[in-house]
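I trust your eye. Have a critical look at both lines of this record:
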Amino acid sequence: MKSMTKLMVVAMLLVAALVVAPAAAQRDDTVSLKGGEIIYVGEDNLNFSGLLNTKDGWLVHYSDPSTGTADKPISISDNTSFDLTEARVGSFTGAFYVVNSSVPGGYNQPPVTAGFPYVNIEKPNLALDVVLNKTIAGGHPDSVNGKSVTKSEVLDFELQNNLDGLLGPNLKVNIDVATPGGGTVRYFGGQDLGNVVITKTKQYTSGIKLDGVEAGAYTAQAKWPSTSDFYNKGFNSNTVTFEVLSKKLAISANKDSVVRGNSFAVTVTGESKTDYIFFVKEVSGLTENQYPLIAPGQPDVTIGNVTAGMTLNGKTVTKDDLKSVPPFKYTNATIKTDAGGKREVKFNTTGKTDDKQFTIRVQDAKDRNTYDEVKVRIQEGEVTVTASGTGVYYIGEEITLSGTCTDNKDFVYLFLTGPNLGTDGVKLDDLAIDAENGNKPNTFKQVEVEVDDTWSYKWDTSNLNKTIDAGGYTVYAVSQPVNKVKLSEAKYDTVSVQLKSAFITATTSGAVVAKGDDLKITGTAQGNPAEGVHVWIFGKNLQKLHESATVESDGSFEYKLDNTKDLSAGQYFVVIQHPMSNGFGVVAVGNELRGQGATSMGVTPVDLSKLQASDAATAVINALDSPNVDDTYVKLTFVVEEPNIFIDPIGDKEAGSKFTISGTTNAAVGDKLIVDVTSAAFQPSKKTETSGFASASGTATVEKGDGVNKWSFEVDATGFKPDQYIVKVECLETDTTQTATFNVVEAKPTTQPTGAATTQPTGTATTATTTAPATTPTQSPGFGALVALAGLGAVAFLVLRRN
């Protein structure tokens, strides 16, 4: 019982001590504020008794002090103990005026005019950085936050703050350092980082030595201690990180192997702000462009200056220090590390870089036995090439060549071999230029390689500056400008193409054309003639000289001779000219036939207007057959006739039947014929009868027949009365009409089946009376039909005269 009583007494004394003893603070709580001071969000027990005559009052922020517009009043309930919390202040900082509760009119008046004292409220700011100790003296410390340092470095923690109003022996922070092992310490690198007194807005801890600390990643943060007003209120500093390396000097590469044509980088880690010798170790027998080369223009990388006698880090470099350094500019350099002790160096490779493993070395200028090396394998890439389509093309066509190139990031080089070309190849787009081995890329077709290692080139075989023969050819795609004899020095691929001579085919829409019909000449011109083809037509009263017809992408072309009604009947001659690969070799200037160009291609000029049609056509063909002209051609003929329509004999048709009227014509296939079938009778009908006339009309399309074009028309004779009928067939295109007649007769009655016996009913006598059937007179064409026949004879006579 006594023991319990003693414990309770002790507990009560502890509670009393906690209540009575004020928390330690940066600012002396017993000294009242006088006005003009800076106070900080988070401070506790602020004494406003020197500014407030009353127990309570306000801290007021004015958006416009000149008008007394208050936007943030903060109530003070006890002028001797006030906690300035973040919740009370919000986002407002700056001048806050102190207003007594007894002031007439309150705080809604201009504070300066009213003579209100003020304080400045700020949010505490504490910033931490980790820097190199050796650079502080220069006034520009190098931060190593987020960087790596070696164990030979000395660091400092830099503390910055805005706590001018609190600086002094009572303002302290702790710097907590989280170690790679997972613990947190306040004694690090030989320095005590607990209760660091803040006496300046920027200050540094004493030198922190890393030679005895564990290698790995560290994180540090400055924290307010529990004795501070700012403790656990979110006002601790930012965190910083740094890595302590176990090795004094190290080098690493971002790639173990690289396809040549690509870049790679190596990273050196050493002492901060220190110079090092850096180079690719020499390989016997290699020229400079066979090494991976240091890319120019990199910061703190001085290329090609490693020489004996130079001074680095206070030491003179000797020849022994430079063993294995190649004597080439872009294979060696001196480099300087940054504040974190790192320096990245980029290398470029090309298609000429040798396919082997290279060793890259970094070396301490003070001690050549302090070094590190990394190995990088340079590998050959690949080149591919394919040709669009089937591999068989007509001279003049465009061929798409495409592929990939991983052996050169800039260009792929194309050349061609084949019949009557240079032995080692020629430039793909100019057959007159031989592809020359070595550094003469202009003798090859250079095609850029895209970022995804693909390339593409459209090869126009119609524009090669030299006639190319039909035959088999080989296209080479090479990673370097080397021709056939030196292909072993580069990566390459080939594709075979078969080139055929261009040709032309053509046909007319009909061998015979009725006057007035259009004539179409259609065909195919292989070889992609950009200028199209030329059409020459000669007849009795027609000359059309080298008229153009466009050739479509599929090689097809069409030429239309509109409305032939003005042409004389007879035979016409057509020549269709293909320019092949060198343009049209034969042209007409006015009426004169000539060879193209200054030399006239050896063609004797001819005035075509003075020649008959067949002779003019022969003159064009003779010119095209000249050995100096590579044009090809096709020749055609067609005949113009007077238009005609013939109707096949129709014969008698039964009323109500269905039948076909047909015939032949020299109208063009596809022409429309208007067909009218009408009764020849024209007498008026009686009022008690339906009309005695019947008719049928429609169109028939001309179709291609066996030697002559044909047509047909279906007639439904339902409703046709026995009579004579006239058929009229008309072609609007050729302005031609033809007529014929036929008779519609009574339909024959259906015959009843024989052998059926009729049974008379029994028990009744019946007398049978036989009545003779009435005789129906035979119908014959009426008057109207006779008149129509007379008219038909007149039409036939006119047609015969016309023909």
User: Anything to note?
Assistant: The two ends are 153 Å apart (CA to CA). The longest helix spans residues 783-802. Helices lie at 2-20, 86-89, 111-114, 613-624, 783-802. The domain at 126-245 is CATH 2.60.40.1930 (Immunoglobulin-like).
